[in-house]
Amino acid sequence: MKNRFLGKIEVSPIGMGCMAFSHGYGKIPDEAYAVSAIRAALDFGCTFFDTAEAYGEQLYYRGHNEQILGKALENVRDKVVLATKIHFRGTAYKPGDPIYPILKEHLTQSLKNLRTDYVDLYYLHRVNLEMPVDEVAEAFGRLIEEGLIRGWGLSQVSASQLDSFHRVTPVSAVQNLYNMLERDCEKDIFPYCLEHNIGVVPFSPIASGFLSGKITADTTFEKVDDVRVFVPQLSKENIIANQPIIDILNRFAAEKQATPAQITLAWMLHKYPNVVPIPGSKRKERILENLGAWNVTLTDEEFSSLEAALNAVEVHGHRGNVENERSTMKEWKR
User: Fold this and answer.
1) Cβ distance 29 to 22 under 8 Å?
2) Which of 61, 85, 90, 303 could form a disulfide with 125 if both were Cys (CB 3.0 to 4.6 A apart)?
3) 130 Cβ contact partners less than 8 Å away, ≥ 6 residues apart
4) CA 8 to CA 5: how far, in whole Å?
């Protein structure tokens, strides 16, 4: 295992997405189990843990996930990298209002939840098109200068949006949707980030579990708080249509004595030196399986063969890597 960098922030090659302990995948485990799973990931070698202030608010409350992570890692703060996110949704913002006080207020609560006095990586969870780019980036830069955060990032952005922010305050990482079924980021996000020393942190790198090979057309999802019911690739017809991709993964998994999920993660680790996926699960054994992907090494020949096989298969269902708080794009405010 060789560590990677998000800007100047050193992390394990695979991180842990913690959202599932608070919402998004049906009934959540009890807090004691969640804490033990996070600590098990740390013991396995994971040093990078991802959360957000919004994780939990659908059925519990804003900050629920941050509090679990804070409880699990408070005593080992110097050994871990913590990432959280601010979402301006619900904020009483009017065009012209100063951004920094809003940002500082949200961060102060996140620090309390996480039981720490700084956050390593603070993301803008989604771009708010009403807020001027320069002022938002400058506000994050001020938090860096004050030592409250080490770096900042953006989630679900286009390359043009990223460039607008990065020109004002250098960005450490981009957290976008990226996996074998969702490869939009290969067009411009990865090239831009490689050129500017920015890390790419794919969420849903196993396509909400589809690429594990464990989801079939007969799989049913929980009706309450399960995001998978909205994922295009997980409709019954697309599960069937995308089966050739699972067949490819099963073949490589058998050859490498690994799981399909591990092959999926090993594929992106081989492809990009600046990628740090954050698979998420509420099951401890699945979390450790995913982290074990950093021990699965593809040769250049194996990677090329896998890439060729994937490129020859049509993908059914598409989400995309750009989501804004407004459905219609408008010219950036500068």
Assistant:
1) no
2) 85
3) 93, 95, 325, 333
4) 6
Domain around 69? 4-311
pLDDT-based confidence at residue 322 (cuts at 50, 70, 90): low
pLDDT one-digit tens code per residue, 288-318: 999 999 999 999 999 999 999 999 999 999 8
Beta strand 4-6 with 9-11 is: antiparallel
Q: What are 248's two structure tokens?
A: 């490819």
Catalytic residue (choose from 25, 33, 55, 122): 55
Q: Give the number of domains in the chain.
A: 1
Predicted confidence at residue 324, as pLDDT, reads 47
Whether residue 322 lies inside any domain: the answer is: no
Instruction: Determine the Cα–Cα distance for residues 282 and 39; give it in Å rounded to an integer.
Output: 13
27-49 core/surface letters (b: 16 or more CB in 10 A; e: else): ebeeeeebbebbebbbebebbbb
Closest to 150 in 3D by CA, of 200, 107, 193: 107
**Residue 55 bears catalytic tag:** yes
Residue 111 belongs to a domain with what CATH number?
Answer: 3.20.20.100
- Provide the residue type at 226 as one letter: D
Find tokens 């989801």 and name the residue: 215
Instruction: Tokens 């080992």: give the residue.
Output: 76
The structure tokens listed for 46 are 């994971």
In a domain, 325, yes or no: no
Q: How far apart are CA 191 and CA 180, in angstroms?
A: 17
Q: With a threshold of 0.85, does the pTM exceed it?
A: yes
User: Dihedral angle at the C-alpha atoms of 161, 281, 119, 9, nearest 10 degrees?
Assistant: -70
Residue 224 domain-assigned (yes or no): yes
Q: Is residue 125 part of a domain?
A: yes
By CB atoms closer than 10 A (0-12, 13-18, 19+), residue 104 is middle
Contact 6, 197 (CB under 8 A): no
